[in-house]
Amino acid sequence: MTIKELGDFYKGKRVLVTGHTGFKGAWLCRMLGLAGAQVTGYALEPPTDPNLFEIAGLEDCMDSVIGDIRDLKHLREVFDRVRPEVVFHLAAQPIVRDSYKEPVYTYETNVMGTVNVLECVRLTESVRSFLNVTTDKVYENREWEYGYRECDPLDGYDPYSNSKSCSELVTHSYQKSFLADGRCAVSTSRAGNVIGGGDFANDRIIPDCVRAAASGKDIIVRNPHSTRPYQLVLEPLAVYLTIAMRQYEDGKFQGYYNVGPDDRDCVTTGNLVDIFCRAWGGGMTWVDRYDGGPHEANFLKLDCSKIKRVFGWRPRYGVEQAVEKTVEWSKAYLDGQEMLDVMDRQIMEFFE
Asked: What's the pTM?
């Protein structure tokens, strides 16, 4: 997939992205903007301060609507006005630890929010392609050493993971019950952990690393032995754009897709922080501060052979390059550079 191929398809297309003020949503909207799409976003106010959406001035580059996906009436009004052709659903409560603190809000957003978005898709004739972005944590985790496949059982453990499993099931039901006539192709994409410039979330390891580096402190690592699949944020976003495009053109491509790095890029949190310290330089160090917090999986990875077979996809960057790109972005931000230019440069380099 090249930026030209993306442009050939997305130029002039009406695209709606839920969760556009979040980290992944902001990068996706910029990629769509560079491809020439007419982008509308629907989301809450940016979830962190600072945040990528405001830093890059993305509000000036698209039609940004502040709203809650739990508000079906407002969401319907936006769908009716925009008449989108392609819909990407990213809006969610995305933090495992927060889901233990606010389980009801997590389920309302991640389950009923998905119902509301799909209800709008069902009632909006213009929509031809819908992609629900979920997570690698939707699978029943047995701490296996091999990757989960799309046919393995869904049953997330904590309220976040479980609500995303429910979001998958809601999507499957809407596809079979209301969209089986082929008018709108429907897929879900289960992505691994993403890293990249502009993620300011709490309780995520790379943002914690950047904050520590910026303030000259040691990095505190809660669980250095947990293994996760890490990839640059642009990797899954390029896959989402591909799935939505290909299923729009041919409904046979709709389905369920894992998106993650190769096995060699499934590393422990401790390894990841070591890579970060090397990339940042200046003698950065970290300390192990296991806090015995709520249950999180120790070992988790995906089998991505389906997406490689169907779309000929291969990850462009390994975990070391992904960390280097994150460090490059973060240092440019701390340096006061024009961050939209930095984003655009990283996107164009990725697609080269």
From this structure: 0.95
Query: Tell me, what amino acid is at 90?
Result: L
CA of residue 115 relative to chain centroid, distance: 19
Q: Using only the alpha carbons of the chain, give its radius of gyration.
A: 19
72-122: per-residue pLDDT in tens?
Answer: 999 999 999 999 999 999 999 988 889 999 999 999 999 999 999 999 999
CA angle 212, 217, 218 (to 5 degrees): 85
Closest CA to 216 of 337, 324, 334: 334
> Is 280:215 a contact under the CB 8 Å cutoff?
no
Instruction: Name the 3-class secondary structure at 217.
Output: coil
SS3 298: coil
| Angstrom distances, CA of residue 91 to CA of 17, 62, 193 | 8, 17, 16
Give 3-state DSSP helix, strand, coil % of the chain, rounded to 5. Answer: 50, 15, 35
Reported as a single tens digit per residue, the pLDDT across 148-193 is: 899 898 988 999 999 999 999 999 999 999 999 999 999 999 998 8
